[in-house]
Design a protein that fits this description.
Blueprint lengths: L14 H44 L3 H23 L1 H7 L5 H31 L14 H26 L9 H29 L2 H4 L6 E14 L2 E13 L2 E4 L3 E2 L3 H4 L28 H16 L5 E6 H11 L2 E3 L3 E3 L4 H6 L8 H20 L4 H13 L3 E5 L2 H9 L12 E9 L9 E11 L5 E11 L21 E8 L5 E7 L2 E2 L5 E3 L2 E10 L4 E10 L3 E2 L5 E9 L8 E7 L4 E3 L6 E5 L2 E6 L7 E8 L3
Parallel strand pairs: 1-5, 9-19, 10-20
Antiparallel strand pairs: 1-2, 2-3, 2-4, 5-8, 6-7, 9-12, 10-11, 11-17, 12-16, 13-14, 13-17, 15-16, 18-19, 19-24, 20-23, 21-24, 22-23
Helix pairs in contact: 1-2, 1-3, 1-4, 2-4, 4-5, 4-6, 5-6, 6-14, 10-13
């Protein structure tokens, strides 16, 4: 009988064949990995070149910046070629290895977008800044250059947003390299986030700049020069104003006028801004800006101007002497009749701090009227465009510069970039102390103010606060041949004021004193924010204190998970000598304070303190304390 056993058709795989196949696979993967392994070096090279480009632009060396960006592009392309090519595709399919390859691809994409933003910035830079800049020229704005700038900002902002999205896709759970990739992602995010946010704010304003400069029809604005030696809650008193017309980017200035001009100085009535508690009865232009927000005070000033002159305007630009001095730091000194050379160093003191040396008020007003159009002319002169813009932004942070536009889209853009001169809308702890001059003097020039807040947090997020406001009148000796009138003159050294303390939402006042005298606990309302008024009179060389004690219902966020996050916003007043601020915060017993923002120090268990000897920004802080295990 034939055999029933069948011969197997299965091939016998020899060990040598398996080993040989694996060897060839590993060799192939190794060859594919060569560019992959070089990617980190190229990524670091791109980063180094982008940082060099940033530094070169800051130094004004556009050629060096362009060379660095070109080098960064070569490095970024190498990273993309390595990670997005066939080798990266193969490695991404391998278990365990594939996930970090995907993460590195996202990092490479982010680097590519960031390099694109840098290329756009370097290309646009010469038109905005430098000796050959064309954005500002002939007392106006070159609209074709402006349109190019609008497109550049839009492209750069889009690239930065795309980079952020790519970084958001990077995980840190991969074996071996996950932590390193997560650290790289976090480091890049820390650098990119504020840049992207700035670009979005810049886009908001550049999108409306053509309208602002009359590209689509004539615009009329009122420019007001503020004197910070005579304060209002909004800033310095508006003592000189001039109308401006802008058409197709070209600026024409009207007649500069003092608000003491008989026509403008008249007391009168106009329709009050709805809800403004500081508009009571008849006003002058010079007393129309008592509200701390320029959206309110600015509109009051415009309504008063229109009532007096019958000239309709589209918006208001306010700038004080301190901001003008900083502009001179960029544009150079000015020569004046009677006052000589005025530069950034002596401008403020000469114009508003030395009435004894320059007692001729008529000559001073003549100078003020000449200075107001000078601001617009210097701002729109060719060159140093970015430095001028940065100067205005810095002045706005310290509330020495602000804008109010009646067009909602324009005003929204102005607010987005911090030029609106508004109070914070925080619902948590808040510090905002202003004063208004009450003896018609210029003695606020010498005012030195310190605000000290002691905060005691409770576990439910509420807090007890003790706020001490110390004001020193550091005026020089009185030198006139007649007795100091103490009121109504440029030369008096007495300083009368009403302090306006704008408190956190829902605050309840439990005690208040001014110069040791009880003031009662009644609060007023300013568009939902409570405030307290306190009167002080300071003779030369004296210091007076006001103290408020109050409860804040939501000084901290208390989610009930054992954490307590204290949140604080601070708004300065545009003083000649910036206000000093100290804050001392204590968490409940048993809490430990986590990471602290810049400017804060740990002063004990569950305790942190902040100090700024001269507040010229509008900071916002968030600090978390955690309950320790029992």
């Amino acid at each position: 009988m034939p055999s029933s056993r069948r011969t197997s058709s299965r091939r016998v795989v020899r060990p040598a064949t398996v080993i040989g196949g694996l060897f060839l696979l590993l060799v192939g993967l190794a060859l594919l990995a060569i560019p992959f392994l070089e990617a980190p070096g190229h990524a670091e090279g791109a980063r180094t070149e982008l940082e060099a480009a940033r530094d070169s632009l800051s130094a004004g060396d556009v050629d060096a910046a362009e060379a660095s960006v070109q080098s960064a592009r070569r490095h970024a392309d190498q990273v993309q070629d390595a990670m997005q090519g066939f080798g990266g595709d193969v490695w991404s399919l391998i278990p365990v290895v594939g996930e970090p390859v995907s993460d590195v691809r996202h990092l490479g994409n982010a680097l590519d977008h960031l390099t694109t933003a840098a290329e756009v910035a370097v290309q646009a830079w010469p038109a905005v800044n430098g000796d050959e800049a064309t954005l500002f020229a002939d007392r106006g704005v070159d609209l074709p250059t402006l349109e190019t700038l609008v497109g550049a900002v839009d492209e750069a902002s889009t690239a930065l947003d795309a980079a952020q999205l790519e970084l958001g896709e990077v995980r840190d759970s991969s074996l071996v390299v996950g932590t390193r990739l997560g650290d790289a992602r976090d480091e890049a995010t820390d650098v990119l986030s504020p840049v992207a946010a700035t670009a979005r704010r810049a886009k908001a304003i550049t999108d409306v700049l053509p309208d602002l400069f009359g590209a689509r029809g004539e615009r009329t604005y009122l420019l007001a020069l503020l004197n910070p030696s005579e304060q209002r809650f909004s800033g310095g008193a508006p003592l000189t104003v001039v109308p401006m017309e802008v058409t197709d980017g070209r600026l024409s200035m009207g007649e500069a006028r003092d608000t003491t001009d008989p026509e403008l100085f008249r007391v009168g009535r106009w329709e009050r801004v709805d809800g403004n508690p500081f508009h009571n009865g008849k006003l002058r232009l010079s007393t129309s800006t008592y509200a701390p927000d320029w959206s309110v005070s600015g509109e009051e000033l415009l309504r008063g101007w229109e009532r007096r002159t019958d000239q309709e305007v589209d918006g208001l630009v306010v700038v004080d002497i301190v901001a003008l001095a900083d502009m001179l730091r960029i544009t150079g000194p000015v020569e004046t009749e009677g006052y000589g050379t005025l530069d950034a160093g002596n401008f403020t003191a000469t114009l508003i701090g030395d009435y004894d040396r320059y007692p001729d008020n008529a000559a001073r007003k003549d100078l003020n009227r000449a200075i107001v159009p000078l601001f617009a002319e210097r701002l729109l002169d060719p060159g140093d465009g970015l430095e001028k813009i940065e100067s205005l932004r810095t002045s706005a942070r310290a509330r020495h510069f602000a804008m109010w536009m009646r067009d909602p889209d324009l005003q929204s853009a102005v607010a987005d970039i911090g030029l609106a001169g508004e109070l914070s809308d925080t619902r948590h702890d808040y510090l905002a102390v202003f004063n208004q001059n009450t003896n018609r003097s210029k003695a606020d020039f010498w005012q030195q103010r310190t605000v000290a807040s002691e905060v005691r947090l409770r576990e439910d997020g509420s807090a007890q606060v003790r706020l001490t406001i110390s004001v020193h009148n550091d005026s020089p000796p009185y030198v006139q041949p007649f007795p100091d009138p103490r009121d109504g003159t440029y030369v008096t050294k007495w300083n009368g004021m009403t302090l306006g303390v704008f408190l956190p939402e829902g605050a309840e006042l439990t005690g208040a004193t001014a110069a040791g005298t009880p003031q009662g606990t009644r609060l007023f309302d300013y568009y939902g924010r409570p405030y307290k008024l306190l009167r002080l009179t300071l003779s030369p060389g004296t210091t007076r204190e006001a103290v408020l004690e109050y409860d804040v219902p939501a000084a901290a966020v208390a989610p009930g998970d054992g954490t307590l996050t204290y949140r604080l916003d601070v708004t300065p007043q545009g003083l000649v000598v910036p206000q000093a601020v100290t804050v001392d915060v204590r968490w409940p017993e048993g809490y430990e304070v986590g990471d602290l923002p810049e400017g804060w120090t740990r002063t004990g268990p569950g305790r942190a303190a902040y100090a700024d000897p001269g507040l010229v920004t509008q900071p916002s802080f968030s600090i978390t304390g955690s309950a320790t295990a029992p």
